[in-house]
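note to self: dont lose this again. the chain is below, predicted strucutre after it. 64 aa total, dont forget to put it in the shared folder this time
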Amino acid sequence: MDKKQKLLDLIDKAGKGSIEAAEQIAVGYFKGEFGEKNLAKAKKWASYAAKHGSEVAENLLKEL
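---
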């Protein structure tokens, strides 16, 4: 699966309420796994996941 398809699949899952998918998107944008790093998008997705109880996302927000 290519990077773009993986991202689309994760966005679809996140849209259906998967907090785990949202945190994977945040980490992916933070690390540049979907192409270039995008810290603004990483922060957006991490904020969403953190609001729903994700500790991974909370920790990522501290790094942003």
